[in-house]
User: Fold this.
Amino acid sequence: MLDQIESLYRQTATGLSYIDNQAEGDVYVLLHGISSGAKSWVKQFLTLSESCRLIAWDAPGYGESTALLTETPMATDYAQQIKQWIDELTIQTPVTVVGHSLGAMMGAAFAQLYPEQTKKLILINPAQGYGNHTDIEKERISRMRPELLERLGTAGMARERGPHLLAQTTPFNLEVVKAVSSGLTMHGVTQASYLLAYDTIDRYLPASSTDTLLCYGEKDTITPPKGMFDLKKKYPNLCLVSLPKAGHLAYLDQPELFNQHVFQL
Assistant:
């Protein structure tokens, strides 16, 4: 199944690698998390090939994508890259931004900066960031994943992290985790880890003027449901949707239910 989406890979003139089904219809921008990549959306690409246009990036520094110029990025730096990407593809209509985990923070920043280009914001098990924590905690978070990647390598990351990312540890789901882990680079993960440590989604959600969908996996142990309930208390505009039997990679664990809510099938 993963081989089927290899032909959908493209690269922008500025060096961003992404998957594009080039279909007609509403445009959905798919943003992966810190330990993932564009291929993690494989089940969406294979089941929604004709109903809407899906574009999923390998975030800056991931896979074949060029890294950001700054070593201390905030979510706005990634949001500017999303805008450049959309503009390079000459997409004229507002897009639905679907951000998973750390990608949710990037997506929220994009929606805040470019409301005229945002049709809807959808958050999937969002990482809220540690920007409001102590300096010691920020430093610990910023170093944790790069050190893990250096110690384990990409294959080791897949073996160690895979079971924690999924509630449905099927052979195929684990194969997807292995595939996206192979695209992790020290530069990309270090930059993304800085974002996770030093920024917070709280900087971007208050400015949201439209209802935002927040899907969460009931079995997620990385960004547990309690954190989603706390976000709802702070931001009443969030519309919570639970995904039973889904872990952190909810769209991989329960694709049919996820697709129904997100793509309104």
